[in-house]
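Fig. S4 source data, part A: sequence.
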Amino acid sequence: MRDQSSPSRPSRRGVLFGGAVVAAGGLAAACTSNAEPDDGGTAARGGTLAGDNDKPGKKVTIGFSAPAADHGWMAAIAKDAEAQAKQYTDVNWKPVEPTNDINQQISAVESLIQAKVNALVILPNDGEQLNQVARKAMDAGIPVINLDRVFPDKLSYRTWLGGDNYGMGVSAGHYIGKKLKDEGVSNPVIVEVQGIATLPLTQERSKGFEDTLKTYGFSVTDKQAAEFTVESGNEVTSNLLSAHKKIDALWNHDDDQGVGVLAAITQSGRNEFFMVGGAGSANAMREIKKGGVLEATVTYPPTMAGSAVKLARLIAQGKGMADLVELQVPQSITLASETITKANVDTYLPLGFES
């Protein structure tokens, strides 16, 4: 989730997982359940026995391209994708050098097309700018699994898999709205540390947050955009703290930049408000468990990369998802955004990525 318009900026982001991770785990299980069928051996309507998908099949080569791993969430994307691919003896894993340069990523994807891989998993620096090369792959008969940042042309991908940006805002809005309502706070000062304001994903998060707060009779008092970095999170939060002598709640879109957000809060000595994060990083979860200003984070799972590899393998081998009736893998899969609090943090902590 970083700036998709500037090659020098990291990309994407959003946030991890907790529930989303569970959602991704559920997806993985649905794709490749190892459980034996309980129907006496009757074949599933999808054409394969439930549980057969994980068994070695036709050897396939899966290409992978993503932005540089210079951000905790993005590093987890690359790690989860590779780890999943290595689970299969029938997958030849062919990643290209990660980069934040649009032209370099286009060239890297073109090299995978020339190599005639059987499927491509692509998390583009910018969906619009890589749309044409993804369409080139599809036209060449190579199914593209579009991860996270969507290509605008549906003919440019076989399946899209990603997180729910609007849902992140909804989850954060419900946590903050309900807590303030239950505490009888009227006219609360609610501030928001966004990611990059020009990105659609940031706009979707803010819209979900705004829409949900309205259901409680609240609104966002002030919001400022950061850049998904520790430094930008620190600077923006310092500005917000200076501008508002009293704050009731703060929502930060991204747990990686949240390291800077928390540092600014600690330096200010302010503790009259509570904070909700976004993504589900391990360090954010440890802060939640410890107790303090950070009370919750909403998920945006990098585990989606592992699920994308599973889907790429199934599609390349002509298989569907074992737990679905349909014969083919769905065209679009959106993971849930759930809320991690002190009450459930121990469940999600093993799934957190390191910022």
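Fig. S4 source data, part B ends here. The chain is about 40% helix and 15% strand.
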